[in-house]
Amino acid sequence: MAVLSRSRGFVPAWGGTVVVELTGLGVNGKFLVLRPAVSVADPTRPLRWACQFTPVPTGWNLIGADQPVDQVEQKYLPESCRLSG
Predict the structure, then answer these.
(1) How far apart are CA 82 and CA 63, in angstroms?
(2) DSSP character for 7?
(3) Beta partners for 35?
(4) Can you tell me the mean pLDDT for 9-14?
(5) What is the pLDDT confidence band of residue 40, given thresholds at 50, 70 and 90?
(6) What pLDDT is recorded for position 2?
(7) Taking the CB of the first residue and of the last residue of the chain, which one, N or C, has fewer CB atoms within 10 A?
(8) Residue 37 near residue 65 (C-beta atoms within 8 A)
(9) What is the average pLDDT value for the chain, to the nearest integer?
(10) For residue 59, what pLDDT is reported?
(11) Which residues pair with residue 53 across a beta bridge?
C-alpha cells in the first residue's frame, strides 16, 4: 500500500485505487475515487481511469477496490465522471 502525503489531499491507495481528498465550497472532507482499468484484449495498452460513478467500458477490467469513503457528489465532478441519465 502506497501512502502519499495526507497534508496534500491524498489518502492511501489500495491496489491501484487512488483516493483524493477535496477541499472547497461544497466538497470539504469529500473524496474522489479513481480506479485504473486494463484492456482485456491487450493488457499492455495504457491504463484508463474510471471515476467513482462511471461504469467500466466493455472490454476493460477494473483494478483495485472501491473505497468506503464519503465520495463527492456528482454535481461537483467533470461531466466525464458523472453517470448519464
Answers:
(1) 20
(2) G
(3) 50
(4) 50
(5) very high
(6) 35
(7) C
(8) no
(9) 75
(10) 93
(11) none
Grid cell for residue 15:
491496489
Those residues whose C-beta lies under 8 Å from the C-beta of residue 1, and which sit 6 or more positions away, are 12, 13, 14
Q: Is the dihedral of CA 57, 48, 83, 56 positive or negative?
A: positive
Q: Which three cell numbers stand for residue 9?
A: 489531499
Neighbouring CB atoms inside 10 A of 46's CB total 6
Total residues found in the chain within this entry: 85
pLDDT interval class at 41 (50, 70, 90): very high
User: Coil, strand, or helix at residue 75?
Assistant: helix
The one-character DSSP state at 64 is: S
Handedness of CA 11, 44, 56, 62 (dihedral sign): negative
Judged by DSSP in three states, 74 sits in helix
Gap between the Cα atoms of 40 and 15, Å rounded:
18
Is the pLDDT at 4 greater than 60? The verdict is no
Type of residue numbered 77:
L
CB contact at 8 A, 25 and 7: no
Return the DSSP state at 23.
Answer: -
